[in-house]
């Protein structure tokens, strides 16, 4: 097996003008938050909102005429399927996609919109891949693997090629690992152009497939991670062979850091990131000492996140930041109590989101009343100021 920078450069020439050369910009605010010099590569600005277009297109452009007529098939949790479907349609190539039943609706819908036949079957990627392989043989199609393919790796590596063309002195490159296609391509570029650059893989803690393989043990995987795009039980054989000698370290990410990274991209950069797409930034939040003071290239891999999940992540971040707090107040059940408390909260500049009034709780006196008031504040300090003001007026609250 041979895979070099030349393969990535050839892929870049092949797909030039057919995919977006996405912008890479320094984020002043993210740099201040993390202590690193953060440069963000906005791959969510691809037409299908993810970098996966690159590898899919590079593969499609190398099919024979006969393979193009028969069509292609793939198994994917979403972004590979959309990239393959979109470019196959533009090239007039029939495409079938097998997706796990748990795939977010937005990804299924968008893949169908690009003209693909979508087969939803299997509970995991591995199960869907086995079904796709069977259909591939039955229909005599060409299987386009989402990561374990040299053509795909070369296409994905063009992300890093563009980054190093603009900022050749990147010191650290954290790259999300699912099956390993992106990190295999990007690590090849990084170590070829700037050998001193540290390449750090990042995986969701629930799916440590690359980490387990490095340790020579069976990966224990499972769980509902928001980074479903990199929730892969087993890293690819080809990708592992290419990437392993080039990777300096692999970090595991717990869910709160993935959620915070999604929220930061939305609130700071005003852009949408899915869980897997925000994994590189999550690494800076979870392991600040690895990146502090360094020039870091962060790939925002994709932005295909279910809108309800995004709303939940943003709301949960408000709770973490103590900007959304539920306060329980117990007092005498007399007219005007709620009005007095509400007036005080309003005077302090907070917004009441929800009120629950409970007279029947047994731990509340028969002549008393219990209120749960959810308020929205500016920050944790503002919340504490409001709680102190309530205490001073005789309405001592406690957070619930």
UniProtKB/TrEMBL annotation:
<keyword id="KW-0663">Pyridoxal phosphate</keyword>
<keyword id="KW-0456">Lyase</keyword>
<dbReference type="Pfam" id="PF00291">
    <property type="entry name" value="PALP"/>
</dbReference>
<comment type="function">
    <text>Catalyzes the anaerobic formation of alpha-ketobutyrate and ammonia from threonine in a two-step reaction. The first step involved a dehydration of threonine and a production of enamine intermediates (aminocrotonate), which tautomerizes to its imine form (iminobutyrate). Both intermediates are unstable and short-lived. The second step is the nonenzymatic hydrolysis of the enamine/imine intermediates to form 2-ketobutyrate and free ammonia. In the low water environment of the cell, the second step is accelerated by RidA.</text>
</comment>
<comment type="pathway">
    <text>Amino-acid degradation; L-threonine degradation via propanoate pathway; propanoate from L-threonine: step 1/4.</text>
</comment>
<dbReference type="InterPro" id="IPR050147">
    <property type="entry name" value="Ser/Thr_Dehydratase"/>
</dbReference>
<dbReference type="InterPro" id="IPR044561">
    <property type="entry name" value="ACT_ThrD-II-like"/>
</dbReference>
<keyword id="KW-0547">Nucleotide-binding</keyword>
<dbReference type="GO" id="GO:0000166">
    <property type="term" value="F:nucleotide binding"/>
</dbReference>
<dbReference type="GO" id="GO:0004794">
    <property type="term" value="F:threonine deaminase activity"/>
</dbReference>
<dbReference type="InterPro" id="IPR005789">
    <property type="entry name" value="Thr_deHydtase_catblc"/>
</dbReference>
<comment type="similarity">
    <text>Belongs to the serine/threonine dehydratase family.</text>
</comment>
<dbReference type="InterPro" id="IPR036052">
    <property type="entry name" value="TrpB-like_PALP_sf"/>
</dbReference>
<comment type="subunit">
    <text>In the native structure, TdcB is in a dimeric form, whereas in the TdcB-AMP complex, it exists in a tetrameric form (dimer of dimers).</text>
</comment>
<dbReference type="GO" id="GO:0006565">
    <property type="term" value="P:L-serine catabolic process"/>
</dbReference>
<dbReference type="Pfam" id="PF13291">
    <property type="entry name" value="ACT_4"/>
</dbReference>
<dbReference type="InterPro" id="IPR002912">
    <property type="entry name" value="ACT_dom"/>
</dbReference>
<comment type="function">
    <text>TdcB also dehydrates serine to yield pyruvate via analogous enamine/imine intermediates.</text>
</comment>
<dbReference type="GO" id="GO:0003941">
    <property type="term" value="F:L-serine ammonia-lyase activity"/>
</dbReference>
<feature type="domain" description="ACT">
    <location>
        <begin position="326"/>
        <end position="400"/>
    </location>
</feature>
<dbReference type="GO" id="GO:0009097">
    <property type="term" value="P:isoleucine biosynthetic process"/>
</dbReference>
<dbReference type="GO" id="GO:0070689">
    <property type="term" value="P:L-threonine catabolic process to propionate"/>
</dbReference>
<protein>
    <recommendedName>
        <fullName>L-threonine dehydratase catabolic TdcB</fullName>
        <ecNumber>4.3.1.17</ecNumber>
        <ecNumber>4.3.1.19</ecNumber>
    </recommendedName>
</protein>
<dbReference type="InterPro" id="IPR001926">
    <property type="entry name" value="TrpB-like_PALP"/>
</dbReference>
<dbReference type="InterPro" id="IPR045865">
    <property type="entry name" value="ACT-like_dom_sf"/>
</dbReference>
């Amino acid at each position: 097996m041979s895979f070099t920078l030349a393969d990535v450069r050839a892929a870049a020439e092949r797909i030039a003008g057919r995919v977006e050369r996405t912008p890479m910009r320094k984020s002043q605010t993210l740099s201040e938050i993390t202590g690193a010099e953060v440069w963000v590569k906005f791959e969510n600005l691809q037409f299908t909102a993810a970098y996966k277009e690159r590898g899919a297109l590079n593969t499609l452009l190398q099919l024979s005429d006969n393979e193009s007529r028969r069509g292609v098939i793939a198994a994917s949790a979403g972004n590979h399927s959309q990239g393959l479907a979109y470019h196959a349609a533009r090239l007039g190539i029939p495409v079938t996609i097998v997706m796990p039943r748990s795939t977010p609706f937005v990804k299924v819908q968008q893949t169908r919109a690009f003209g693909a036949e979508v087969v939803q079957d299997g509970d995991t990627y591995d199960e869907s891949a086995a079904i796709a392989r069977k259909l591939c043989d039955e229909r005599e199609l060409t299987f386009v693997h989402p990561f374990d393919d040299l053509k795909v790796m070369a296409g994905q590596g063009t992300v890093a090629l563009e980054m190093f063309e603009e900022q050749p002195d990147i010191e650290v490159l954290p790259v999300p690992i699912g099956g390993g296609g992106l990190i295999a391509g990007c690590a090849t570029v990084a170590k070829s152009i700037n050998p001193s650059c540290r390449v750090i893989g990042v995986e969701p803690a629930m799916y440590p497939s690359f980490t387990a393989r490095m340790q020579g043990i069976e990966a224990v995987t499972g769980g509902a991670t928001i980074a479903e795009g990199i929730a892969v039980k087993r890293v690819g054989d080809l990708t592992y062979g290419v990437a392993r000698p080039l990777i300096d370290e692999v970090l595991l990410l717990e869910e709160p850091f993935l959620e915070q990274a999604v929220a930061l991209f939305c609130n700071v950069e005003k852009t949408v990131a899915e869980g897997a797409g925000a994994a590189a930034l999550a690494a800076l939040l979870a392991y600040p000492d690895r990146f502090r003071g360094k020039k870091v290239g962060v790939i925002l891999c994709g932005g295909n996140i279910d809108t309800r999940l995004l709303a939940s992540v943003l709301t949960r971040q408000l709770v973490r930041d103590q900007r959304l707090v539920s306060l329980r107040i117990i007092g005498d059940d007399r007219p005007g109590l709620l009005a007095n408390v509400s007036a005080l909260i309003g005077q302090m500049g907070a917004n009441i989101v929800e009120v629950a009034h409970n007279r029947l709780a047994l731990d509340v006196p028969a002549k008393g009343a219990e209120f749960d008031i959810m308020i929205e504040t500016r920050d944790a300090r503002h919340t504490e100021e409001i709680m102190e003001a309530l205490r001073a007026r005789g309405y001592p609250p406690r957070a619930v």
